[in-house]
Amino acid sequence: MNVQDDVHDEGGRRLDQIRLTGVTATGYHGVFEHERRDGQTFVADVVVHVDTRRAAAGDDLVHTVDYGQAAQLVAAVLSGEPVDLIETVAERIAATVLALPGVQAVDVAVHKPQAPIPVPFGDVVVSIRRDRTKLPAAEPYRPATGQVRRSADTGLRPRTAALPLAAGPSSPPAPELPPPSAPAVPVPPAPLPVPGPPSPPLGAPAAPAPAAASTPAPDASRLGHDAGPDGVGAVVVGPAPSGAVPTGVMPAVAAGPDAAPDGARTELMAPVPDVVDGELVLDALDEPPAQPVRCVLALGSNVGPAQETLRQAVAELAATPGVEVVAVSPLARTAAVGPEQPDFLNAVVLARTTLAARDLLRAVHAVEQRHGRERVQRWGPRTLDVDIIVYGDTVAVTDDLELPHPRAHERAFVLQPWAQVDPEAQLPGLGGGPVAQLAATAPDRDGVRWMALDWLTAPVPAANPEPEGASAGEAHLP
Q1: Entry pTM
Q2: Given this model, what pLDDT does residue 318 score?
Q3: Helix (H), strand (E) at residue 98
Q4: Can you give the residue ranges of the 7,8-dihydro-6-hydroxymethylpterin-pyrophosphokinase domain (predicted)?
Q5: Order of all β-strands in the sheet with 402-403
Q6: With CB atoms 3.0 to 4.6 Å apart as the test, which of 24, 253, 267, 427 could cross-link to 432 if both were Cys?
Q7: Which of 54, 63, 111, 112 is catalytic?
Q8: Where are the domains of the chain?
């Protein structure tokens, strides 16, 4: 199929793609009686748009799309309930794939190479894209209960259950796929001991829990600021701060049949009915470091008395338990990007912290909220923006925190003030390097208008942005 335009996530980052081409099955779709009676070959190409970094970080199928399962679902739709139009088939495939966890958009092309057309032709193709803003005009295919299982994040290698292909009313029964051979059963890792009361159960267990399951589960409040409904925490993909512990995985929590979408079940080492992946994960970003860790915070404001807001924010950060402010950069005035809005005032704070990375994230969000921060419009004006740029040498990709900040290496309004206060600073991670050198080549370097040195103790002339005016460049990290 022709490659369509890239799809971007809410942060403006291009999503990755998983492609399935040439999925073929005999179907009974069409408006003519002989099409419904005799059937013909249908072919589907599918492009799934998803973020694959978390799966790659942990080398874990649970955090990406199982393309084997997806292919079977697509084939099931092709060979399933007959409809008149291949447009309907395409919508059903899109709805089915979009319902898989983690999928943010899907491209579907359905081919009907044996269409009853009375002139020579090569193929008939209907191609569509569906996402969360343009939902499919059909319901997803739902196999019978127990036909499809998703592997739980249990610390064990997942395996894929066979999916019998559904057949249409007029079609012969499709052959059942051979079951996979049973792998050797490894010993699961022991869960990490976590203080605090156990979390309430999600439902009655389907079978007696093993002895290890009696270990108290982590406090659900420590799963991250924006933890997803499955309760899965972060995945650390680089060096963790000194004293951090490796990822520990708690056993899957049994839940009732209403806790998961139809057809979605968890498979552990043997089929267990009515179990969903409700596991709790504690990772290194939740663990306080053994020694204070250096961190860099970027501050910005362009609503209200921006200089005073930044002054108060620095004082509140310094008063935060577990945070020691070491140095504060000059104040920079920088042009904004996006909708028309005033210039930003920006500064960088160097600090040491004994907080875990995710606890630091909660602390800076609390400072933002005290100053009325609202996340309404991307790249819009804001009373206060506080971003964690680096946390030691940690390189991590998680649902709620990415370290170092993924766009810091190209943002002069962060790099220039940072280089002023620490000329030898190094930005770790992909695209990193000497901060001063990165500042000199940053795409928005011309948007930094001026810097003031004594802004914490004295008013800076024209520090408060004028009510109107904007130009190219960027003055905050989205």
Answers
A1: 0.47
A2: 96
A3: helix 86-98
A4: 378-389
A5: 235-236, 396-397, 402-403
A6: 427
A7: 112
A8: 16-141, 146-157+225-268+276-286, 293-452
Spatial CB neighbours of 106, under 8 Å, sequence gap ≥ 6: 46, 47, 48, 49, 94, 97, 98, 129, 130, 131
Nearest alpha carbon to residue 106 among 173, 15, 197:
15
Question: How high is the mean pLDDT of the chain?
Answer: 73
In angstroms, the CA 50 to CA 32 distance is: 38
Distances (CA, A) of 415 to 107, 182, 341, 448, 455: 39, 54, 22, 10, 18
Q: How would you classify the pairing of strands 266-267 and 150-151?
A: parallel
Return the closest-CA partner of residue 65 out of 33, 39, 37, 100. 100
Q: Which sign, positive or negative, has the C-alpha torsion 288, 292, 293, 299? A: positive
Q: Contact at 8 Å (CB) between 359 and 244? A: no
User: Is 3.30.1130.10 the CATH number for 16-141?
Assistant: yes
Q: Is 112 a catalytic residue?
A: yes
For the chain, residues with pLDDT lower than 70 are 1-4, 144-282, 337-338, 374-380, 461-478
CATH 1.20.1290.10 fits 293-452, yes or no: no
- Residue 174's Cβ-count burial label (10 Å; 0-12, 13-18, 19+) is middle
**216 Rama class: left (phi>0) / alpha (psi -120 to 50) / beta:** beta
CA distance 425 to 410: 15
Q: For tokens 């993924």, what's the residue?
A: 406
Structure tokens at 104: 């943010």
Q: Could you give the CA distance from residue 253 to residue 281 in angstroms, rounded to a whole number? A: 12
Phi, psi (deg, nearest 5) at residue 241 = -60, 155
